[in-house]
Amino acid sequence: MSSTLVLVLSGLVIGALFGAVVQRTNFCSMGAISDAVALGDKKRLRAWLLAIAVAIAGTNALLLTGLVAIDKSFYLAPRVAWVAMLAGGLLFGFGMVLAGGCASRTVVRVGAGSLKSFVVFIVMGLVGYMTARGLLYYVRTAVETVGTDLGKAGLPGQGLPSLASAAFGLGAGTAIAVVAGLAVAGIAAWCFKDRGFRRSARDIVAGLSLGALVTAGWWATGWLAADEFEPVPPVSLTLIGPSGDTLQYLMTFTGAKISFGVAVVFGILLGSFAAAVAGKTFRIEMFADRDDMLRHMGGAALMGFGGVMAAGCTVGQGITGAATLGIGSLLALAGIVGGAVISVRLLMWRMERASLDRGI
């Protein structure tokens, strides 16, 4: 079996499991933030952080055992484009609230029958592709010129373990084990200190499963489907770039080569469709009105542009990237959360104003 076929099959299987888990557990990063801000309910936020903790443990275990060269991934490159990470994250986070869900939730909803999520997916993928390779390419690259090259300071990469190694004189392996171990322990302790979360099997399953699937993605691309004659850096789950690549693949199918990311998107669609049908939750969903459509499309455009600028979404940077403990990923994640909080509070303020106006 060729490495390409193994890569595609791995992407389909991992994507299908991801789609099924998200559909059945109602996991959504945007929902996690809005629940916490608007309702004070942090169970889904804890599920997200649990996924990050599991992914940190699995990802760094693969690195320490030498199975996958995680340190060769772009997440740990010495240069940190911190302005692009923060600004892109803010735009993505703000946009995902307007669009009613993050990139992964959008793809899952398409599989579950949502036509408005289908429109969001098209706009998000199109704008994302334009930002990566098209009309908006020069805007993105201009922003990316502002950054800090840690290589000039003698650091091999931007990971927190590299900083700890340089600061405290630790060996590379020791630094990875210590920093990753502390991160996992701290996050897990915060997640499970809440009684409501401990009793929520659905949220615990979501966190454990998604973190494991991110680890599986690294293993599949960095070991299972690795080609020693054509070595490429390992990757794992991310949705923004692959959404645009999926549209491009569908339009150039006869001459295109499918990637792991595109296979994951197809897998998510299949998995969410199967889970929705099995759970009797498949239904066709339309926009409520013109304003609803415009709001979703505007949010999708911000997600596409901001997500590519930040080099990932709530999965690509918020779990996969965060698992590498890269500074850029953590900055992007902070931007995403900040943008989403601003957007949620703005929508709450508008709803309150509208309610007061009706009362008057």
Word description of this protein:
The chain is mostly helical. The protein has one domain. Helices cover 72% and strands 1% of the residues. It has 16 helices and two strands. The chain has helices at residues 3-25, 29-39, 43-64, 82-98, 103-111, 115-133, 137-144, 160-168, 172-192, 195-198, 201-224, 240-251, 260-278, 290-309, 316-323, 327-359, and strands spanning 79-80, 148-149. Strands 1-2 form a two-stranded antiparallel sheet. The model has no long low-confidence stretch (mean pLDDT 95).
Quick description:
The chain is an all-alpha fold and 360 residues long.
Write the layout of secondary structure elements.
Layout: H1 3-25, H2 29-39, H3 43-64, E1 79-80, H4 82-98, H5 103-111, H6 115-133, H7 137-144, E2 148-149, H8 160-168, H9 172-192, H10 195-198, H11 201-224, H12 240-251, H13 260-278, H14 290-309, H15 316-323, H16 327-359
Antiparallel strand pairs: 1-2
Largest pleated sheet? 2 strands, antiparallel
Order of helices and strands: HHHEHHHHEHHHHHHHHH
Radius of gyration: 20 Å
Shape: globular
Detail the poorly predicted runs: none
Indicate the mean pLDDT.
95
Query: Care to count the β-strands?
Result: 2
Helix percentage range: over 70%
- Distance between the first and last residues' Cα: 70 Å
Structural class: mainly alpha
Beta content comes to under 5%
- Give the neighbour order of strands across the main sheet: 1-2
Count of helix runs: 16
The number of domains is: 1
